[in-house]
Design brief:
The chain is mostly helical. The protein has helices spanning 2-15, 18-29, 34-57, 64-91, 95-99, 102-116, 123-132, 148-186, 197-208, 221-257, 286-299. Helix 8 (148-186) packs across helix 9.
């Protein structure tokens, strides 16, 4: 009983070890520290290796002994991803936020199939598990968390999302209107592919995006003229989302340059970074910088 009580006490101390949680959080979530960078490099390499293993296993060109090696590597990587997943939950004050997030769900789904294979032995179940394991390919999306340019791109896309949504809503109205007009022009032809409005809208989308499958084509001179107009309009509007995101990226890049390390005086840090990625010094938060600016203004 004393042994069980001691074991329970150690487990309880481990669960409430705030100093250990802070160290793990700095390594796992902060990519600006030396240990955080090393962890990110190992994690990125493991993600790429796990994807390569899935691709190689699907080719069926290796002898049986090679597949045993691939399976052992898969088990080791799964163990590493499991430890990483549990470490992220352990060091967070609100682990539910991570568990229910996109990357948290992907981490869980990418790790479960290997464990499920130990309990589901039917051949038809194994086929499902084999396909389910392909979900781990989506772990590649996590690479964007550790690449500055990827962070900048994702942040720019997030900020530009309302403008892009309004733009695509306008394009949706445009293709619906043009598809309806094309149905009025070509729909009277019994052999035409424009036999209903949904097909006409599909044609308008394919034409405006310059994909041009060619499965539906206008036959009348007026229809061909109208399709040419839609093609020209498509060329003019394709660049709009790119311009919106590019302008946002420029503004975000200028904002990054304003964050300067108080020790080494180098800039280019992420807005959410807590430590300098060059020397490891603690960076000033946005609130502290505003307070210092207000203090300087009052002195003047």
């Amino acid at each position: 009983m004393n042994y069980i009580a001691k074991l329970y006490q150690r487990w309880n101390d481990f669960l409430h070890n705030e100093e250990l949680k802070e160290k793990i959080y700095t390594i796992v979530f902060e990519s600006d520290t030396p240990k955080g960078k090393l962890f990110d490099i190992v994690l990125i390499g493991s993600i790429i290796l796990s994807v390569l293993l899935v691709i190689l296993e699907s080719m069926h060109i290796f002898p049986h002994s090679a597949y045993i090696v691939l399976r052992v590597l898969e088990y080791l990587l799964t163990l590493f991803f499991t430890i990483e997943y549990l470490a992220r939950i352990y060091c967070l004050k609100q682990p539910r936020t991570y568990v229910l997030s996109f990357f948290g769900i992907v981490d869980l789904l990418a790790t479960l199939p290997v464990y499920l294979s130990f309990f589901l032995h039917g051949s038809h179940y194994l086929l499902v598990i084999r396909a389910f394991r392909l979900i781990r390919i989506f772990r590649i999306f996590k690479l964007f968390q550790f690449i500055n340019e990827g962070n900048l791109l994702l942040r720019s896309l997030w900020i530009s999302a309302p403008k892009i949504f309004i733009f695509f809503f306008f394009v949706l109205i445009l293709v619906t209107s043009m598809g309806t007009v094309m149905y009025m022009i070509e729909g009277t032809n019994p052999d035409s592919g424009f036999n209903n409005i949904p097909n006409s809208i599909y044609w308008a989308i394919v034409t405006m995006t310059t994909v041009g499958y060619g499965d539906i084509t206008p036959a009348t001179p007026l229809g061909r003229f109208f399709s040419a107009v839609i093609m020209l309009i498509g060329y003019t509007i394709i660049a709009v989302p790119t311009g919106i995101v590019s302008a946002t990226m420029v503004r975000q890049h200028k904002a990054l340059e304003k964050r300067r390390c108080p020790r080494c005086h180098r800039d280019g840090h992420e807005p959410e970074a807590l430590y300098c990625k060059y020397c490891g010094a603690k960076l000033k938060t946005e609130r502290v910088r505003k307070e210092e600016k207000q203090s300087d203004d009052m002195k003047l």
